[in-house]
Automatic annotation (TrEMBL):
Matches recorded under InterPro entries: CheY-like_superfamily, OmpR/PhoB-type_DNA-bd, Sig_transdc_resp-reg_C-effctor, Sig_transdc_resp-reg_receiver, WalR-like, WH-like_DNA-bd_sf
Response regulatory domain sequence ranges: 4-117
Domain OmpR/PhoB-type: 130-227
Protein name, UniProt field: Response regulator transcription factor
Residues where 4-aspartylphosphate is found: 53
Keywords attached to this entry: DNA-binding, Phosphoprotein, Transcription, Transcription regulation, Two-component regulatory system
DNA-binding region, residues: 130-227
Length: 227
C-alpha cells in the first residue's frame, strides 16, 4: 500500500515540484496551500507523514505541528528558510521529527521521509516482542506504546518515546550521540547531533524529580540513564 503524505506549502511551484517527485517515488500525495486547511486535513485524514512549511497563510507550520502533535504521533518534517534558526528550534520543541532547509535537493527530502517512515515501521514490528521496561519510577510498556512516570501517564512525541526507550534499554550504559542518531533517526539521516540535545532537554523537562536526574550527560560522549 502506498504511503500517504500531506504537503502544506504556500509556494505553489515548490509544492508542485515536491508533489511530482514524491508521486514518482510511488507516494500517495495530497497538497494544500493554506495553514488552516492543512491542519484540518491532518487531523481529519490518515497520513503517514506531514511536510509543513513554517511560513503559511492562515496558520503557521509550527502551530500546526503543535496542534497535530497533541492528538497524533504522525511523523512531521518542517520546511524552513536557511536563516530561520529559531524556527527550527521552535519546530523541534513543538514536536517535529525533523526539518529540511530551503533550498533543498529532492534526494535529501526523500532520505528524510524514508528515515521517519523507517522509524515508524521499525517500532511497529518491535511492539509485540518487547517486555515492560522499568527504571526507578519510570515504566515503559512497548506493547501499548505507553510511558508512566511516578504512576502518571507521560505524554511523549514519537521521537521522544523512541529516544527514552533506547536510553532505558541501555540503562547504566553510556549511549554516544552518533549511536543515538543512528538508532532513533536512522542510519542515513542528515540530522545534526545537536538535535539529540534538543530532545534530551524535552525529556528532562518531563522527567523532573527531586532525586537524582534520570538522564545524565557524559561530557564529550553522550547520555546515560542510571538505575
Amino acid at each position: 500500500m502506498k504511503k500517504r503524505i500531506l504537503i502544506v506549502e504556500d509556494e505553489k511551484n515548490i509544492a508542485r515540484f515536491m508533489e511530482l517527485e514524491l508521486q514518482h517515488e510511488y507516494f500517495d500525495v495530497s497538497v494544500t496551500y493554506d495553514g488552516r486547511e492543512g491542519l484540518n486535513r491532518a487531523l481529519e485524514q490518515d497520513f503517514d507523514c506531514l511536510l509543513l512549511d513554517v511560513m503559511l497563510p492562515g496558520l503557521n507550520g509550527i502551530e500546526i505541528c503543535r496542534r497535530v502533535r497533541a492528538k497524533s504521533d504522525v511523523p512531521i518534517i518542517l520546511i524552513t528558510a536557511r536563516d530561520a534558526v529559531m524556527d527550527r528550534v521552535a519546530g523541534l520543541d513543538s514536536g517535529a521529527d525533523d526539518y529540511i532547509v530551503k533550498p533543498f535537493a529532492i534526494e535529501e527530502l526523500l532520505a528524510r521521509i524514508r528515515s521517519v517512515l523507517r522509524r515508524t515501521q521499525g517500532n511497529e514490528k518491535e511492539i509485540e516482542k518487547d517486555d515492560v521496561i522499568h527504571v526507578r519510577d519510570l515504566v515503559i510498556k512497548p506493547q501499548s506504546y505507553e510511558v508512566f512516570f511516578e504512576n502518571k501517564k507521560l505524554e511523549l512525541t514519537k521521537t521522544e518515546y523512541d529516544l527514552l526507550k533506547l536510553l532505558c534499554e541501555n540503562k547504566n550504559r553510556v549511549c554516544e550521540r552518533e549511536m543515538i542518531l543512528q538508532s532513533v533517526w536512522g542510519y542515513n539521516t542528515e540530522v545534526e547531533t545537536n538535535v539529540v540535545d534538543v530532545y534530551i532537554r524535552h525529556l528532562r523537562s518531563k522527567l523532573k524529580t527531586e532525586s537524582t536526574p534520570y538522564i545524565e550527560t557524559v561530557r564529550g560522549v553522550g547520555y546515560v540513564v542510571r538505575e
